[in-house]
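Dear Dr. L.,

I hope this message finds you well. Following up on our conversation about the binding site, I have prepared a predicted three-dimensional model of the protein together with S-adenosylmethionine. For your records, I am including the exact sequence and ligand specification that went into the calculation, followed by the structure tokens. Please feel free to forward this to your student if that is useful.
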Amino acid sequence: MSGFDTRWLDLREVADHAARDRGLRQRVTDHVMAVGEDATVVDLGAGTGSTLRALLPEAQHWRWKLVDNDANLLAEAGSRHGLSGRVECVEAHLDDISVDTFDGSRLVTASALFDLVSEDFLAGLVAQLVQADVSLYAALNYDGICHWDDPHPMDEEVVAAFNTHQQSDKGFGPALGPAATPSLRKLLEGQSFHVAMAPSPWRLDPSHAELQRQFVSGMATAAAETGLVSKMDVNDWQSARLERAENSSCFVGHWDLFAFR
Ligand SMILES: C[S@@+](CC[C@H](N)C(=O)[O-])C[C@H]1O[C@@H](n2cnc3c(N)ncnc32)[C@H](O)[C@@H]1O
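The resulting structure of the complex is given below.
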């Protein structure tokens, strides 16, 4: 178990797919298709396979290696893709993967992953990408910006506390949180990659009420854990936000990034 359950990943997948930057996605699929239909793509922190689904229909022609340390999520990914013989599920901790994982692949992908990792992890990964001569598509990393159309007096404080929590250890050392994509860009450019970035925010409306509720509850728990806001203030904020979820709209900023040499 990684702490990411299928229900949460399913809930966010709709918003994630709508949020991905279309132009960048097209550049990524063109880049993979340029080497023919049997290109290999490695998806890190694959979960239930959301990235593969986001890159359909083109992705059905590629060979996929889905890497995750959560056996349950990988089993779910394996049962969902319907691409017989083209998908290998690899159960591994990302700290333990070697450059061989990327051997012969055209692209490495990761979505909603790099805001969980440390700068050291990214530096190691970029070194492996250079060694394997492979490109990178990193989608949907949180950028620290979150606001609602119907402001609440505690929004700013809660979001600031949440952003601090985003930098705590998520299994890879101190996490980059909102700094992930700018840091990744710097590391990649330092190794002569061409890097393109585009915003990919969630724009949640009342049709995403359940996602809004789960997101608000997760944010409240994380914010309270920092001790930067009082438990009582966070509880009041959470109750108000949960009540409004059917009527409010919420913006959650992310970055997509594509890097190639
Ligand atoms: C936020 S989820 C994103 C899942 C998927 N990429 C998506 O967009 O739906 C993060 C994923 O990273 C995986 N993960 C977290 N830490 C990991 C680690 N140390 N090694 C391998 N996978 C890890 C989790 O199991 C989870 O599937």
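In brief: The beta strands are 40-44, 63-68, 87-91, 107-111, 135-148, 194-199, 202-204, 250-260.

With kind regards,
A. P.
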